[in-house]
Write a sequence for this structure.
């Protein structure tokens, strides 16, 4: 990591490692825990959510296909991240730079790849608010639909998948126009900024395609049934006319 950049805020000098060097973070304090430590702690949370989700779907719907079990687990994980981790940013964005809570430290670590999260950027607040409070609950709703085989599953899955992909596209586009928000080390750009967000882009495209295929099949089936009924009625009328 590069040497700390010294920023002056009134009479106080605040040291930080974020880019661009000109941003003022008067409330900033260094994380108490190391990057490895907070990432491991977050990893344990992920593992707990994944494990509990797998247990739930295995008991509630033991005959579910592997594809549906995987979808259920993914929706639980993405719902947890959206509704808790990203909601934490929306609620605490003004004081995030000085936070020592686990999620606060995680956001400060991630912000090395995008310092806008520490400066209350309007676009990020709006985008993350939609992600947290719309896509978060919707993800859990879809998980429920998968568990009980509700017919609304694919319609809702298509909505959230398109929304996540669209959000990622806007996020990439707005940041890439001004790459100075990210530190120059490739690790922060390719691992934090690109890879972590690309997961939702890739998975979102997969589930959007899956739902589009299933909805198309359902309507094709309805059309076939409709045509069969029309042919049956026509045949019955002609038979009566003989």
């Amino acid at each position: 990591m590069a040497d700390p950049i010294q920023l002056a805020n009134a009479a106080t000098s605040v040291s930080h490692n974020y880019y661009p060097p000109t941003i003022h973070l008067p409330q900033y304090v260094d994380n108490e825990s190391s990057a490895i430590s907070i990432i491991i702690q977050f990893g344990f949370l992920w593992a707990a959510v994944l494990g509990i989700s797998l247990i739930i779907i295995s008991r509630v719907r033991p005959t579910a296909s592997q594809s549906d079990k995987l979808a259920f687990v993914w929706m639980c994980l993405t719902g947890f991240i959206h509704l808790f981790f990203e909601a934490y940013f929306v609620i605490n964005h003004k004081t995030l730079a000085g936070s020592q809570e686990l999620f606060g430290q995680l956001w400060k670590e991630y912000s090395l790849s995008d310092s806008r999260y520490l400066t209350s950027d309007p676009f990020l607040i709006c985008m993350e608010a939609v992600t947290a409070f719309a896509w978060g609950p919707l993800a859990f709703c879809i998980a429920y639909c998968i568990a009980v085989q509700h017919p609304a599953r694919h319609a809702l899955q298509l909505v959230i998948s398109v929304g996540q992909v669209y959000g990622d596209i806007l996020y990439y586009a707005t940041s890439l126009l001004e790459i100075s928000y990210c530190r120059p080390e490739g690790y922060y750009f390719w691992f934090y900024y690109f890879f972590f967000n690309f997961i939702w882009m890739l998975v979102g495209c997969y589930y959007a395609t899956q739902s589009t295929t299933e909805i198309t099949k359902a309507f094709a089936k309805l059309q076939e049934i409709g045509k069969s009924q029309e042919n049956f009625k026509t045949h019955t009328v002609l038979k009566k006319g003989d």
The radius of gyration is 24 Å. The longest helix spans residues 186-241. The CA atoms of residues 190 and 196 lie 9 Å apart. Confidence is low (pLDDT under 50) at residues 1-11.
